[in-house]
Write a structure and sequence with these properties.
- It is an enzyme of class 1 (oxidoreductase).
- Keywords: FAD, Flavoprotein, Oxidoreductase.
- By secondary structure, this protein is an alpha/beta fold.
- It contains 13 helices and 22 strands.
- α1 packs across α7.
- The radius of gyration is 23 Å and the shape is globular.
- The two termini are about 15 Å apart.
Length: about 500
C-alpha cells in the first residue's frame, strides 16, 4: 500500500455511490483526497439496486415532494452526463381499482410530470391493454410514464475514475480500522485486506460514507456513539429468462401496498424486484430468502400470461439500504431521503457522516456534503459536477456513437460494439488502443468477451477478482457457463501470480 501524501485534506471511507461521488466532487474542487474501500467498489448496496434512475413515483404517497422533485431534476442531469450507462425507459402501470383509484394515480402522474422540468423524457398517459399485451386478460387499462435505467455498479466506477482523474487516490481492499483526532488532524490506520499490512495517514477531514456500515464505523473504528439511527432495509431481486418482448418495464401493485418492477434486463432476461423488508443481520451476509422468492414469483404470476417458477431463476441478489430511522411503521414507508451529520468540535478535524439516500440523488448529496466540507477549506473551488460528463460520457446519444465506432472499428461484431458503447462509451477508444482486427483482442473467454477487455479492467478499473469483472464491471456472468468462469478464474490467478513474481 503506497500513499502519495503524508497529510490529506479528505479521507472518504466507503466506495459505494455516495463515497465515490463525494471523492470526485471534492477532488474536482482542489482537495487532496483518498478513498478507502474495504472490498471492491460498489460491492454492497450500490451494485444491488433495481438499476433505476427515477423520481420515485410511490414516494408521493408518503408526501416526499421535495425528495421526488430533487430526484426528478437529478434524473435529467444524469441522463445528460452518462448517456452510455443511463438511458430512458418507459414504465407501464396496470390499473387495479381496488388498490389505488385511477384518479389518485392520475394526480400522482401529473405531479410526476411537473414537479421538475422534463427535457428528454416523454410525459405520462393513460393506455389500454389489447390482445397482444403480455398481461393477463383481466387487466384492460393502465398508465405509462418515463424514468431511466442505470448500470448501478458502473456509475460507481465512473465516479471513482472521475475522482482519480482529478488527483484522488482510490484504495480498494483497504479497510479503515482506526481513526482518532490529534493536533487538529485525524490519525487513521488503513489495512490491506489481502496482505494484512497496515499504514498510517493523517487527514484534515473524514467523510463516513460506509453505507450499511456507517454506524459500525463509529462503534468499531472511532469508539464513539453514532449521532443518528439507521434502519437497514433489505431489497431482493430475481433474474429470469425474459417474460415478454416489449421494450417497456412494468410497475406492479401488490395487495400489501408494495410495488414490484419487472424490467427488461441484459437483452435476454427480466429483472424482478424489490421486496423491502427489515434486516437485522450482517450486511455482508445478506441473501434472498424463500419468502421473498415466493413473493416476487406470486406477484409476477398474478399479472403476466407467462408464468414463472423458482426453477426459472438464473440469479438472485440482495442489498441492504441504510435508511434514516424516521419511525415509519413499515419498511417501504421509510424515507429514502438523505442526511449528513457534521461533527466538528472547535480546533478539531471535522467528520461528516452520510445517512440514507438513493442512487438517483447521489450527485446532489455529494455536492451538498462537499459544500459543507468546503467551509473548512476556504480556498477550495466551486461546485462543478452538474455540467460535467462522467468518464466516457462525452457524446450525445448511443446511436450516433455506435455509428461513429462502426466506421472506426468496422471489424468488431455489432453486438460487441453495442455492448462497448453501453458499458464504456468513448472510453472504448482506450480499450481498443492498438487493435486493428478481432485477433488483437486476444483469447476469447466467452462469446464476445476477450482478453483485452479483462486486462483493461484490471489495469484501469481496480478489478482484482472474477466477480469484480463479470458482475460489477460487466454483467457477463449472466451469459457465461461454469466452465467459462473456471477458465477465467485460472487466467486471472496466473496473471496476478506472474505480476507478483515480476515485482519480487
Amino acid at each position: 500500500m503506497s500513499l502519495k501524501h503524508g497529510v490529506y485534506d479528505l479521507l472518504v471511507v466507503g466506495g459505494g455511490i455516495n463515497g465515490a461521488g463525494i471523492a470526485a466532487d471534492a477532488a474536482g474542487r482542489g482537495l487532496s483526497v483518498i478513498l478507502s474501500e474495504m472490498n471492491d467498489l460498489a460491492s454492497a448496496t450500490s451494485s444491488n439496486s433495481s438499476k433505476l434512475i427515477h423520481g420515485g413515483l410511490r414516494y408521493l404517497e408518503y408526501y416526499e415532494f421535495r425528495l421526488v422533485r430533487e430526484a426528478l431534476a437529478e434524473r435529467e442531469i444524469l441522463l445528460k452526463n452518462a448517456p452510455h450507462i443511463i438511458w430512458p425507459l418507459r414504465f407501464r402501470l396496470p390499473h387495479r381499482p381496488h388498490l389505488r383509484p385511477a384518479l389518485m394515480i392520475k394526480a400522482g402522474l401529473f405531479l410526476y410530470d411537473h414537479l421538475a422540468k422534463r427535457v428528454t423524457l416523454a410525459g405520462s398517459k393513460s393506455i389500454k391493454f389489447g390482445n397482444e399485451s403480455p398481461l393477463k386478460e383481466v387487466m384492460k387499462r393502465g398508465f405509462e410514464y418515463s424514468d431511466g435505467w442505470v448500470d448501478d455498479a458502473r456509475l460507481v466506477i465512473l465516479n471513482a475514475l472521475a475522482a482519480q482523474s482529478k488527483g484522488a487516490e482510490i484504495k480498494t481492499r483497504c479497510k479503515c480500522i482506526n481513526a482518532k483526532r490529534a493536533d487538529g488532524l485525524w490519525i487513521v490506520t488503513l489495512q490491506d485486506t489481502f496482505s494484512g499490512a497496515t499504514e498510517t495517514l493523517q487527514t484534515r477531514s473524514i467523510v463516513n460514507a460506509a453505507g450499511p456500515w456507517v454506524s459500525s464505523l463509529f462503534n468499531e473504528v472511532m469508539s464513539t456513539t453514532p449521532p443518528k439511527k439507521i434502519r437497514l432495509v433489505k431489497g431482493s431481486h430475481i433474474i429470469v429468462p425474459r417474460i415478454h418482448n416489449e421494450a417497456e418495464a412494468y410497475m406492479l401493485q401488490n395487495e400489501d401496498g408494495r410495488i414490484v418492477f419487472v424490467i427488461p434486463y441484459e437483452d435476454k432476461f427480466s429483472l424482478i424486484g424489490t421486496t423491502d423488508q427489515e434486516y437485522y443481520g450482517d450486511p455482508a451476509k445478506v441473501t434472498i430468502d424463500q419468502g421473498e422468492i415466493d413473493y416476487l414469483i406470486n406477484i409476477t404470476n398474478q399479472h403476466f400470461r407467462t408464468q414463472i417458477s423458482a426453477a426459472d431463476i438464473v440469479r438472485t441478489y440482495s442489498g441492504v439500504r441504510p435508511l434514516l430511522d424516521d419511525e415509519a411503521g413499515s419498511a417501504q414507508a421509510v424515507t429514502r431521503d438523505y442526511s449528513f451529520e457534521v461533527d466538528a468540535p472547535e480546533n478539531q478535524a471535522p467528520l461528516i457522516s452520510i445517512f440514507g439516500g438513493k442512487i438517483t440523488t447521489y450527485r446532489k448529496l455529494s455536492e451538498a456534503a462537499v459544500d459543507k466540507l468546503c467551509e473548512y477549506f476556504p480556498t477550495s473551488g466551486e461546485k462543478w459536477t452538474a455540467n460535467a460528463p462522467l468518464p466516457g460520457g462525452n457524446f450525445s446519444n448511443q446511436n450516433s456513437l455506435q455509428k461513429e465506432f462502426t466506421k472506426q472499428y468496422g471489424w468488431l461484431p455489432t453486438p460487441l460494439l453495442r455492448r462497448f458503447v453501453r458499458t464504456y462509451g468513448t472510453l472504448t477508444v482506450d480499450l481498443l488502443k492498438n487493435t486493428t482486427q478481432l485477433s488483437d483482442l486476444g483469447h476469447q473467454f466467452a462469446e464476445g468477451f476477450y482478453e483485452a477487455e479483462i486486462l483493461y479492467l484490471i489495469n484501469n478499473e481496480w478489478a482484482l477478482t472474477v466477480e469484480d469483472i463479470i458482475w460489477r464491471r460487466t454483467k457477463l456472468g449472466l451469459h457465461m457457463s461454469d466452465k467459462e468462469v473456471d477458465v477465467l478464474t485460472q487466467y486471472m490467478e496466473n496473471h496476478f501470480n506472474q505480476n507478483i513474481k515480476a515485482v519480487s
